[in-house]
Amino acid sequence: MGEDIGQCNFKFSPQPILTGLAEFDVEGKLEERDLFLCASSVLFCNAMIEASPFSSLEHARSFARNLWFNTLPIQSWLDTFSAHRHLSDAITFARGDIRMGLLQYLSEYRKKFGFGFVTSTNLHLSQQILEEVQARYQNSLQVELETASREEFTLIERRLTKLWERLSSEKTLEVSEETGEVVQDSMLEDDVAPDSSDEIVSKGHQPSIVTFDLNKTREENDIC
C-alpha cells in the first residue's frame, strides 16, 4: 500500500460475561428487522439469523464478534458505517470554535478515508469528539479502518444488548401471562432503537476504498 503503518495489535479477547438478562435463553430465530438495527449489513443479519437461537447474550455477542472481525468482507463494514452521520449530529450540539472544528473535519475526514467518521462517544460530548477526530485524522487508511471497525462493533454490542433485553422481557411477559403472574411495567421495553450516540439514517453514497478488495475480509486484505 506504500504506507508505513507500524506494528498493529489487532486482537479481540473475550469480553466479561454479563449477568441477569444476559443469561436468559431467547428461543427462536432472530428477525432481520431487529438485527438490521444492530448492523445495517445484509450479510451480518443473515449470518446471525442462521446461527440463532443463541443460548445467552454472551453467546450472541461472541458469535457477532467473530463474524464482524474475522468473517465479513470489508464492504459489510462500509455498509454499516454508512448508516451513521456522527459528525453531522455532533455539530448540532456544538458551539463556537468546537462547532467550527467539527465542520472542518466533516468533509475532510470522508475525503481522506472514503467513509464517514464512526465513534461510540456520546454525541453531546462535542469537545471530546473533536479531539478524537483530530487525532484519528492523522491515521493511515489501514489504521483508521481498523479503528472505525472497533468503534462500530462497540455500537453493535450495545444494540445487541438492547435487543436481548427486549426479547427477554417479552418472553418473561409471555410466561407470566400463562401463569397469571403480574409483570411490572418496568419490564416492558420499547422496540430496539438507536440512541443519540448512534442514530441510524438512510444510506447515501456508498464509500469506495480502492486500495482494498471490499469483497474480502480484514485478514485477506492483510489488515493486521
UniProtKB/TrEMBL annotation:
Pathway: Purine metabolism; urate degradation; (S)-allantoin from urate: step 3/3. GO terms for biological process: purine nucleobase metabolic process; urate catabolic process. The keyword Transmembrane does not apply. Its EC number is 4.1.1.97. Residues 103-160 form the Oxo-4-hydroxy-4-carboxy-5-ureidoimidazoline decarboxylase domain. GO terms for molecular function: 2-oxo-4-hydroxy-4-carboxy-5-ureidoimidazoline decarboxylase activity. Keywords: Decarboxylase, Lyase, Purine metabolism. PANTHER family: 2-OXO-4-HYDROXY-4-CARBOXY-5-UREIDOIMIDAZOLINE DECARBOXYLASE-RELATED. It comes from the Eukaryota. InterPro entries: OHCU_decarboxylase (IPR018020), OHCU_decarboxylase_sf (IPR036778). SUPFAM superfamilies: UraD-Like (SSF158694). Transmembrane segments: none annotated. It holds the Pfam family OHCU_decarbox. It catalyses: 5-hydroxy-2-oxo-4-ureido-2,5-dihydro-1H-imidazole-5-carboxylate + H(+) = (S)-allantoin + CO2. GO terms for cellular component: peroxisome. This is 2-oxo-4-hydroxy-4-carboxy-5-ureidoimidazoline decarboxylase. It comes from Arachis hypogaea (Peanut).
